[in-house]
Design brief:
It is a multi-pass membrane protein. InterPro entries: NADH_UbQ_OxRdtase_su1/FPO, NADH_UbQ_OxRdtase_su1_CS. The chain crosses the membrane at residues 12-36, 82-104, 124-145, 166-184, 196-215, 244-267, 287-307, 327-346, 352-372. One of its GO terms (cellular component) is plasma membrane. By secondary structure, the protein is mainly α. It has one domain (12-272, 293-371). 61% of the residues lie in helices and 2% in strands. It contains 15 helices and two strands. The protein has helices at residues 12-44, 60-69, 81-97, 125-146, 150-181, 186-192, 198-201, 203-216, 228-231, 241-266, 274-279, 289-310, 316-347, 352-371, 414-417; strands at 107-110, 113-116. The chain has a two-stranded antiparallel sheet with strand order 1-2. The protein starts with 11 loop residues before the first helix and ends with a helix.
Length: 418
């Protein structure tokens, strides 16, 4: 499909079938991802993981979901009841809606009707995904605020700042894709990757997007809105039963959403991988592309799980500084480079390989400059406290009249404790 002429002609019952299938796929994919995460992390930590309920423990997620839904539903006395109930719904619904423009495959015959394996498409489909996904932030913020708890409020504020910050880097990473594809339509972007995937052509954009999508979904090592050691449970501390399950569902569907978007924009969408597409001419026809699409999505989900089982949580100020001082400037530099390459390629007159080498060297220099830590000058350094012992001792309170105890360390600051 090279244009949007294939959309908007389906009968109402085909549209209904597509919408129901997307809903069922997302719910089943969530149950599978929860089971898969527990099994993979258990394998990494030399544990067994769920293996009792159903074959290989596959029904464990369903059992946990039913148990969670049947638990007692508690609403705190200080909570704003209407907003408290609305918040998890506001977080879950956008997670489902974003999949309406994701292409799962080419045109197929469905119950005698010729239709694309995509609910709908539009000229600004990628912007639609980002706009709808950003509505989910309101659910998290309102959930934290309406609980009447300080810890929940802090978790909601952390989450809003984090998601907004990393949405900026994510949006800038996608600009290079728009420049190369010449469109913001998801189906046209997939069609533009028929020969070469953008993940190989636009490597910096791909890496920036992968970092930003982890921060956007509040997953480890960027799960600062929860930060159990500091905030008990984050924005959903006061939630229980089905409302907590909706927050849980929204998180895992958002994982699938950013993974599906990465597949669509950088890994050729539903197109078969290179060796298969060359050996098997019919690999991109019929319903076979569904296999390639979900295989790529599960690859990104595995990266989420791998990171959770490998890396410790970052400190919040380090995490925010990395987004604003590293990812966003590098994204802006890369956009200028890509725009220059596209302009020169379309107009001609300059060797493209030489231009790529020059821009690559400049990008490496800027990357090194950004990664070098800032050094404090002698004037900015804090003066040493008279009589303060060297670090390494236990923190003890100072004596009322004599200052710190000899041989003990000075009291730790909040940043050092965390």
């Amino acid at each position: 499909m090279d244009d949007l002429s294939a959309f908007g002609h389906d009968p109402w019952w085909i549209i209904l079938i597509k919408a129901v299938l997307i809903f069922l796929v997302l719910v089943l994919l969530t149950l599978f991802n929860i089971w898969w995460e527990r099994r993979v992390v258990a394998r990494m930590q030399h544990r067994i993981g769920p293996n009792v309920n159903g074959p290989f423990g596959l029904l464990q997620s369903l059992a946990d979901g039913v148990k969670l839904a049947l638990k007692e539903d508690i609403i705190p006395k200080a909570a704003d009841k209407a907003v408290f109930i609305l918040a998890p719904i506001l977080a879950a619904i956008p997670a489902f809606v974003t999949f309406s423009v994701i292409p799962f495959g080419p045109e197929v015959d469905m119950f005698g009707e010729r239709t694309p394996l995509q609910l709908t498409d539009m000229p600004v489909a990628v912007l639609f995904v980002m706009a709808i996904a950003s509505i989910g932030i309101y659910g998290i913020v309102l959930g934290g605020w309406s609980s009447g708890s300080t810890y929940s409020l802090l978790g909601g504020l952390r989450s809003s700042a984090q998601m907004i910050s990393y949405e900026v880097a994510m949006g800038l990473a996608l600009v290079a894709v728009f420049l190369y594809a010449g469109s913001m339509s998801t189906s046209e972007i997939v069609a533009a990757q028929k020969d070469v995937w953008f993940g190989f052509v636009l490597v910096p954009s791909f890496i920036i997007y992968m970092i930003a999508m982890v921060g956007e979904t509040n997953r480890a090592p960027f799960d600062l809105p929860e930060a159990e050691g500091e905030l008990v449970g984050g924005f959903h501390t006061e939630y229980s039963s089905l409302k907590f399950a909706l927050f849980f569902l929204a998180e895992y569907i958002n994982m699938a959403t950013v993974s599906a978007l990465a597949t669509t924009l950088f890994l050729g969408g539903w197109h078969a991988p290179w060796p298969i597409s060359q050996i098997w001419p019919g690999s991109n026809e019929g319903y076979w592309p569904l296999l390639w699409f979900f295989g790529k999505v599960l690859f990104f989900v595995f990266i989420f799980i791998w990171l959770r089982g490998s890396l410790p949580r970052l400190r919040y100020d380090q995490f925010m500084a990395f987004g604003w001082k590293r990812l966003i400037p590098i994204s802006l530099l890369w956009i200028v480079a890509v725009a220059t390459i596209r302009a020169v390629t379309l107009d001609g007159g300059v060797d493209r390989q030489q231009l790529l080498v020059i821009i690559g060297i400049m990008a490496a220099i800027f990357l090194v400059m950004f990664l070098i830590p800032e050094r404090k000058s002698e004037e900015d350094e804090e003066p040493a406290v008279a009589g303060a012992p060297s670090s390494g001792g236990f923190p003890v309170p100072p004596m009322p009249a004599g200052g710190p105890v000899r041989g003990a360390a000075a009291p730790l600051t909040f940043r050092e404790e965390n």
